[in-house]
Amino acid sequence: MRKLIYGMNVTLDGYIAAPGDDIGWSVPSDELFQFWSDRLQATDLSLYGRKLWQTMSSYWPTADQQPDATPAEIEYACRWRDMSKVVFSSTIDEVDWNTRLVTGDAVAEITRLKAEDGGPMDIAGATLAGAAMRAGLIDEYVLATAPVLVGGGTPFFTALDNWVNLRLIETRTLPCGVTLTRYETRD
Q1: What are residue 180's DSSP bridge partners?
Q2: Do the Cβ atoms of 32 and 167 come closer than 8 Å?
Q3: Is residue 87 helix, strand or coil?
Q4: 8-state DSSP, 178
Q5: Where's the Bacterial bifunctional deaminase-reductase C-terminal domain (predicted)?
């Protein structure tokens, strides 16, 4: 059975994007970028909602070809492009870069994927992760909390039908002031 991990950069007041989908508050440091790159390398399959997929796929497939690309960005772009991905959307009809499109029931497909043998899966995108949260499918939460308050926007956590009890498994602070925390679900 695969492990499902939900992780993103988040503001101290709990948002992954400020109003207007503004993520300008989240300027990654080298250490934070390396953290996410290492997580990507340890991931067997990435699950995306449409909105985040469109953001990622508009940049990373060719990021390694940019004249000012750093070695870390080149490495990340190659990892991202080559890894297996699934996009859940009923409004797009084509994906690329080692990606499969699912237009049906996301929770049913995520449940099926979790039951397979394989390495960990990451889930990204507030709406998709919210559906997986409500269905009790997420095994671990990874928050890279930036020391900024934005007052509104897209929340990291969705409204839930029931409590989710968690156990802290890691916490550390990067030199840039971002606090990394990892929690696993517990019964």
Answers
A1: 144, 172
A2: no
A3: strand
A4: P
A5: 2-179
